[in-house]
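Sanity check record (used in CI):
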Amino acid sequence: NSKCYYSIDNRESEREDEERDSVCVCVCVGIKNIKETLFAFPTNAIKTSKYNMFSFLPLNLFEQFQRIANAYFLFLLILQVMGLTHVSFSHLACRAFVNNKLIFSFNRLRTEKWMDVQVGDIIKLENNHFVTADLLLLSSSEPLNLVYIETAELDGSVAVCFLRPDRLSKRVCCFSKGELRCEPPNNRLDRFTGTLMFQGQKFSLDNEKVLLRGCTLRNTEWCFGLVIFAGPETKLMQNSGRTTFKRTSIDRMMNALVLCIFVFLVFMCTVLAIGNSIWEQQQGDFTTFLPRQDGVNAAFSGFLTFWSYVIILNTVVPISLYVSVEIIRLGNSFYIDWDRKMYYARSDTPAVARTTTLNEELGQIKYIFSDKTGTLTQNIMTFNKCSINGKCYGTVRGKKQHETEKVDFSYNPLADPKFSFHDHSLVEAVKLENPEVHAFFRLLALCHTAMAEEKTEGELLYQAQSPDEGALVTAARNFGFVFRSRTPETISIVEMGIQRNYELLTILDFNNVRKRMSVIVRSPEGKLSLYCKGADTVVYERLHPSCSKLMEVTTEHLSEFAGDGLRTLALAYKDLDESYFESWRQRHHEASTALDDREDKLDELYEEIEKNMLLLGATGIEDKLQDGVSHTIEQLSRADIKIWVLTGDKQGETPREILGKKSKLVQDEAVNGEYGLVINGHSLVRNKMFRSNVPKSFLYSTGAPSFLAYALDKTMELELLRTACMCKTVICCRVTPLQKAQVVELVKKYKRAVTLAIGDGANDVSMIKAAHIGVGISGQEGMQAVLSSDYSFAQFRYLQRLLLVHGRWSYLRMCKFLCYFFYKNFTFTFVHFWYAFFCGFSAQTVYDEWFITLYNLVYTALPVLGMSLFDQDVNDRWSFQYPQLYVPGQLNMYFSKTIFAKCVLHSGYSSLVVFFIPYAAMYNTVRDNGKDVADYQSFALLAQTCLLIAVCIQLGLDMAYWTAVNQFFVWGSLAVYFAITFAIYSNGIFLIFTSSFPFIGVARNTLNQANVWLTILLTTILCVLPVVAYRFLLMQLRPTINDKVFKVRQTKASPPPPPRRARIRRTSSRRSGYAFSHAQGYGDLVTSRRFLRRAPVSRSTAFSPTARSPGKFLPTGRSAGYSPTGRQSNLRQDETSLQMYRAVKDPQI
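Expected output for Phospholipid-transporting ATPase:
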């Protein structure tokens, strides 16, 4: 354990605020002789830069040379410049970011920089200041030392949370020496254990008394804190990881292809160098009038020729290839940003491509890993159904719920006008003062950690830890049990118009293992009661045996709720004996101040008192799906994309309902296997078979994190993956953020498939970073997932457009671009190779040097960019109508090593035609006037003209979608070629730059011959004819999905509109999990004398004695669909069971 010793000098100063008399200002002397402590604590200096002045060049070059082509270009540059190469850069790409904002460090009120803060210092933070280190909160300017913080940097939540120091804060200025013992530095953001010793007393410290680095002080004028962790030991820095640069599969393939091309280039240059040596030995008669230099022989001439041809033939991979690739990616990213069909007007959120390097990867996704809450659902909970004392409420018999008149809550002036409920019998039971119904809603009004804010009389605003809790408190509010306010010792509620104050004695808070929370209160009559709510399976184990019959009935209701996709919760209570509770309370205090095994000791005490409870009933809360989720999942599944849901929820909750709505798809499509896997969290025995309404294509993986960690072990991970891959859809429940990333890495490692992870919360960040593509949802849980993602938008339904439209188009365009680019450049280069056999291997170029310069820069640049930016085989409506068009991208059918080899062979054929047809046509050919036309310059002009026209026509064959821009680029490029050719071959240019433009008059003297144009026509036909014939035969004999859709498009002008899908009511044999928080609650906070709100406004009782009759309808603030912005899915269970069995196919699915 870490120890921190410090001493305090007491000095008093008066505040300028006259409302307070005086406040103690602590002047920290600092750590007392730091060498005597057990640890040498680090300073608060943080270095987050990737480079410094000395490491920038080597690290940046290392990153750049991850792309093999850059090494290839550097080699050619060195070869051409030969010693004149120099490398320079103007500034560092990244530098250390040092925030020089000053904070107050209390050593006689001196001002220090953040980096100079040390462990043991007491610092002062002001409003909107960034918390600079991990601090023990001491005091603040707010009433009763309340502190508001924003934790967006830590968990993505933009909501303002609240903290309050313990009672020790009032005395911290009065002691002279103290000792703080705490856990060693770790990355647990949700946990802190420590004790503070002073004046012989021990005080317990936990996470609720700590301000973590990364928080921002909000709505608080100032606060004081003691530094306990600084610099790299802070929890934020302990969680920081290295972000890897993501590369697409095409990029990785290009690295391999560039190596192959370089080897092929060396082979061609070696052949030509050997040919030069042989030619020099056999045909060296020219040395009599052009003698060699001394020491130069045929072998050395071949050596020089080798490097000359390396320079000449380097156009097989020009640098313009990678420049064009980046332009294409940038353009396709803009298409995503500009897509109005992916714009969510309700929150004014457009789709954003946060990277430009992964667009084509969107067209190759095979596995999607999705979070549930906030990603597939709205994360807005509404109270839908309940079961009270064996009677089910919320189910409207004989009519659909939306066709039934809503319950009129006008009799309740404090009711939420946005809350809706359709079962009038529950309201009647409340008005008839049914004791079980009253006890049910009294529990909902008392058993929570929500905060009530009442700015004006009757307008309540609830701030709850989870959306479930907010929905339950709002439901109790509407049915007459209104939670009004709370203090550390009391909870004030209005029960059917009567103000009642309950003494809050203890909160047994929720955590991941307990899966329940309880409160112990004393009623105004002096009666002690324990109220508990939690997961049904957990609460059932702690019920009194007399509740067995009621439990059976409630279980049936829970199964019905689960079948409707509701999140369920069981409610129970227990009356306590006064003497027993006082004994238990003393033991609870001792356990809460223990430094070792504090949580285990508290859990034992909680288990002791939460026994023999009486069942009240259960609730069913609806976490509504986002619009279009089911249709999107069906579309993606038709595109052969496997969908895995990784959630912290329990089996039987919304994930199964979401994916179960694909029942039609499951029935129609074949499944590779017939087995399903269920890991239940309460036993280790094999269990019953799937019921008939569970599709055989589902895999449920639910269980404690420890079990899933075992399944993800190296010895078991393959078995887990094999089992999962037998199913169409996989649901992994109760998974932690780390396990989400491990599941993604498992699929990436063994399946060699492109993965996509999508989530909306901070607990999804690790999964988003681990996948090839990360997508963030701008939802209710902050921006952490968005900031870590590659693409972001507001609704899950936009994912189908991102993949089936933008992703497929981007992949198709990039593949067409690469195939065509390699074709035109290999054809261009191979002509040099054939010409070498006719020029004595002298490294003479076959084209004019200006044509070589402008070929990739001007003549063929815009046409291929036009195709790569605007081409589409089908429009977006046909892409949605036939999602199977997405499958070729998963199989790499548009660009692969085989496709590349075909491009090389095609280029070889075209180069033979482009070289030998003009060569044969001009051999021994004369003009109309009888003069010879067969000269080098005329042949060069003819060959390059044939080449350019042939590649432009090939581009036209590859292009499926002609636009005005494409037409302009293609025909404009040909027009520019002829214009430039006639210009640079004119007399005027020759007279100005004689040495640079030697082809004087070649254009007008060659292109005026009819046989030249016939040669161009013949060459073009011979280049294109085999391609047309091959594609025609392939379409007839082995049609692809694109060919089939093309035939359908010929018969239909547009695809039919999608059919309207009827909602199917489904039932479930398994109870859903709990509609409950997935994060540590605020129980200790609200019971530790930390006042959670400002003094309530003065008010009178909201209900009148005659409030039973309908009265005035008053708007009262927050909706029943309450949605907070923070969540954490770090769940685990103690026991698991593995159930494997054969699925039974249901003909109705």
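The longest strand covers residues 2-13. If this sentence no longer matches the regenerated tokens, the check is flagged for review.
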